[in-house]
Amino acid sequence: LPDGLSSFDRIAFTAVGGTVRSLFDDFSPYNMNDFANAGPNQTINCITPTTIGVPLNCSLQGLPSGFTYSWFPTTGLTCPTCSTTTANPNVTTTYTLTVTFTDPNTGIPCSASSNSVTVTVAPALTASAGSNQIICAGKCAMLSASVSGGTSPFTYVWSSLSPSQTYCSGSTCATITVCPTSTTLYELSVTDANGCAFTSQVTVSVEFAPTVSISGNNTICSGQSTTLTASGGGTYLWSNNGTTTQSIIVSPTSNTTYSVVVTSENGCTASATVTVTVYPTPTVTITNNNPTICS
Questions:
Q1: Global pTM value
Q2: For the chain, what is the HEC assignment?
């Protein structure tokens, strides 16, 4: 054999019309490494696995049979011994394809080549509708979506199941304002450019204002005092003197109206008023029309 021929070249010669001729004369110069082609690097997402490998078609090229394929690692592959396989790894993985030519007569591997391809797994899409909120009746809440991973642009859909309603849908709906009249569960659905989707829920609870009342004697005589007591829970603020206790002692000299604002634990407020009426102290006189009497 001519100098420089490998063991693979030696088994590749055959007699054609009495002349010894290499099967690879039509593909000169021949390089075994050309036949291990794992294909270009690729990126996959939650929807689509990817196909890696470029098949070696021996029948079309007039090459002898005897090629075997081996992919490593095998994690996420549908066929680790095929020329072309589907890869769906959970994490970014570099696969190496080794193509081996085995002498069909002796069964001895004569030559091999390898090539690698990296399958990048796009960051998983996650989204959050935010923390649960409590609002006072008649007020509104702002809901904001936060997104990580995935591939932009993103589409947002805000909806509720009861009542069944869609509030906003589109790429500009990352933040919405809602004004429920009762406690409502909202659902956020985020879809990225690859069609990957993630849902999250948030509850907006509606709290009604506290019921406030003021008790105590609301009629006094001039010079007297009375105790006014507010009820309704939470914190108290009396408007007349800024007192923050539940009860106050007042000694008005004339008819006076007192008001109190009660704030619940969640910031909802209500108020009540009471007027204390002051009656003047009567003036008592004793008249003696007959200051002199007989014994």
A1: 0.64
A2: CCCCCCHHHHCCEEEECCEEEECCHHHCCCCHHHHCCCCCCEEECCCCCEEECCCCCHHHHCCCCCEEEEEECCCCECCCCCCCEEECCCCCEEEEEEEEEECCCCCCEEEEEEEEEEEEECCCCEEECCCCEEEECCCCEEEECEEECCCCCCEEEEEEECCEEEEEEECCCCEEEECCCCCEEEEEEEECCCCCEEEEEEEEEEECCCCCEEECCCEEECCCCEEEEEECCCEEEECCCCCCCCEEEECCCCCEEEEEEEECCCCCEEEEEEEEEEECCCCCCCCCCCCCCCC
